[in-house]
Design brief:
single chain; alpha+beta; six-stranded mixed β-sheet; four-stranded antiparallel β-sheet; about 35% strand
Length: about 260
């Protein structure tokens, strides 16, 4: 069954099309971004790419800084993959897929310096803001990396600080102070199947992946993070091509914000 599916996908790609009729580097439609979807969070967003749908909530807590960065706050990213979004997911501690998803989102935000961690400092060596980003796919129809990264960025854009008197946070009171984003890192996952490259794979195409490269870039096209996946290696030439696709499609996704 797997071989038949893969052969069919490759034959379609050789003809310049895909299972659902899209072009190789075409995203599914619609691409929707909705802000402020979770009222109990400091920031939230829902992103839909085709049938893939992801919610992200941002909570802000006050904690102690790490000893080596006493004047910096931080981000903590977690992902929960529920059976309700994909029957292949199981309840329990985060598995490899959830851990990788969280790391890809974390790396894009962290390495791009999208948030100035020094601005999260309340009292050097004592108190800093910790920005907690929770990813929850509602429907996994493929390409959770891009949908989750876009939703995380939108939720951060939506986030406002809760009321804090220096000792205690009042989560019932939101201030007008927004969490400032210095950069806007967009992740695009480029997939290699056979000798062809595509973006935004659906669940059937994900079964036929040889290699994938998630490319995170900022507004001017500067790379900030890469994540390789799949069982097969990539040549330098293939990586260069995937980078070009990722950066170009990143400009398209950024417009949705």
């Amino acid at each position: 069954m797997y071989r038949e599916l893969r052969s069919h996908i490759i034959s379609l790609l050789n003809a310049g099309t895909r299972l659902d009729g899209r072009k190789p580097t075409e995203y599914r439609k619609p691409i929707e971004v909705e802000y402020g979807t979770l009222k109990t969070a400091e920031g939230s967003a829902r992103v839909r790419i085709g049938e893939t749908e992801v919610f992200v909530g941002v909570k802000m807590e006050v904690g102690e800084p790490y000893p080596d960065t006493p004047d910096e706050g931080t981000i903590i990213v977690g992902a929960e993959l529920l059976p309700l979004s994909n029957p292949e997911f199981e309840l329990g501690p985060p598995g490899i897929q959830a851990i990788e998803l969280a790391r890809v989102v974390d790396r894009g935000i962290r390495e791009s310096k999208a948030i100035d961690f020094k601005k999260l400092c309340i009292e050097k060596g004592e108190k800093v803001w910790m920005v907690i980003i929770d990813i929850c796919p509602i429907n996994d129809a493929g390409n959770l990396f891009d949908a989750s990264s876009l939703a995380a960025l939108a939720a951060l854009k939506d986030a406002k600080y809760p009321s804090f008197d220096g000792e205690k946070i009042d989560y019932k009171v939101k201030t007008d102070k927004k969490l400032l984003l210095e950069k806007m890192p967009i992740a695009v996952t480029v997939v290699k199947i056979g000798d062809k490259f595509i973006v935004d794979p659906d669940t059937e195409e994900e079964k036929a992946i040889d290699s994938r490269l998630t490319v995170s870039s900022i507004e001017d096209g500067t790379l900030c993070a890469l994540q390789k996946g799949g069982d097969f290696p990539l040549t330098v030439e293939e990586i260069d091509k995937m980078l070009d696709i990722g950066i170009e499609k990143g400009k398209e996704l950024r417009k949705r914000l």
